[in-house]
Design brief:
alpha/beta, Rossmann fold, 7-stranded mixed β-sheet, 38% helix
Length: 325
């Protein structure tokens, strides 16, 4: 196999960044080289130049490389304080606001007599689905009147392989260690050497393939997502979500891409919506309009419902200037 020149390595990095915003720090370049060598071996190529040309013209091969690179490390109740905050703090507030606005009577009985109010959540970079399932459990534990709400969780990732696994709802016993026993009883069914997520909970989650490079909520308020069967659908994202989880995603982008992502996530949240990021993704280094909220030891970012501009009264504030052209 030929040696990989610095110029050729830079070409690979630029191609990957252009197509999916992923960038590589010096400490991660070794892993990139390993993945390149692996895919070259699969394609029986000995020249990095030949493999680069293949990547540029073959979308399937590019996707296969990204499948190799994409980190799939995840587990249930990762950063547990965030899920406690959803159950104890955010769910009751969101529910109260929805009920106050819709005037839906919180009564048991025939729920077909009124239109259910949606609680919409987006789990970005959901990998094999543990995060999305944990969110669903926390929300269902936190809302008082589940019969009057439709909990809708959009769970997206760039990896089709990870999403195919997530869609089965099956998890090995080793993945279940951090799930509280009461959650296992209510939301899972033990089968053999693992467990499956209850159908009622799994139906609340829609798994979609999505490349964050294509996130531009200002353009027409929608983005194209791919179902696991390969069909493409257009979904509204502008001011749609009550909660967005985007954890340990920005750390793989360069700074300009991180800033554009923060701007875009702001636009995707409803006024008064909430953003959760990873422990290493504190937003103080970016320009943004979020309010920082602390619940116990958990950081939460809230999109203001209104902002008072001097002399102009109150109006919804949306950022439109920093998104990608």
């Amino acid at each position: 196999m030929h040696s990989l020149s610095a110029q050729m390595l830079d070409s690979f990095q630029r191609l990957i960044c252009e197509r999916c915003l992923m960038s590589f720090t010096q400490s991660r370049l070794g892993k990139l080289k390993t993945h390149l060598r692996h895919r070259m071996g699969v394609n029986e190529l000995s020249s990095y130049e030949d493999y680069y040309r293949l990547l540029k013209k073959d979308e399937n091969e590019f996707n296969a490389l990204i499948e190799d690179i994409a980190t799939k490390e995840t587990y249930f109740f990762r950063i547990p304080g965030q899920f406690h905050a959803i159950r104890e703090y955010l769910s009751p507030m969101i529910e109260k606001r929805l009920l106050d606005n819709s005037k839906i009577p919180p009564l048991q009985g025939d729920t077909n007599k009124f239109k259910k109010t949606p609680i919409r959540i987006w789990s970005i970079g959901c990998s094999t689905g543990e995060e999305a399932c944990t969110i669903a459990m926390a929300i269902m534990e936190g809302i008082k009147y589940p019969h009057v709400h439709d909990v809708e969780i959009l769970a997206s990732d760039i990896s089709r392989q990870a999403l195919n696994k997530a869609s089965t709802g099956f998890y090995e016993a080793s993945s279940l260690k951090k799930i509280p026993a009461c959650y296992k009883t209510r939301y899972m069914k033990m089968i053999g050497d693992g467990a499956v997520i209850a159908d009622d909970l799994l139906r609340k989650i829609s798994f979609r393939i999505f490349n964050l490079r294509n996130l531009d909520p200002i353009r027409d308020g929608t983005c194209l997502f791919t179902r696991l069967d390969g069909t493409v659908e257009k979904l509204a994202v502008f001011e749609r979500f009550d909660i967005i989880f985007c954890r340990n995603v920005m750390i793989y982008f360069d700074f300009p891409s991180q800033q554009r992502l923060v701007d875009s996530l702001y636009e995707c949240l409803k006024p008064g919506g909430y953003l959760f990021t990873g422990d290493a993704e504190i937003l103080h280094i970016y320009k943004h309009g979020f309010e920082n909220i602390r619940y116990k030891e958990t950081n939460i970012y809230k999109k203001p419902e209104t902002i008072n501009f001097s002399g102009k009264g109150k109006e919804i504030w949306t950022i439109k200037s920093c998104l990608k052209p």
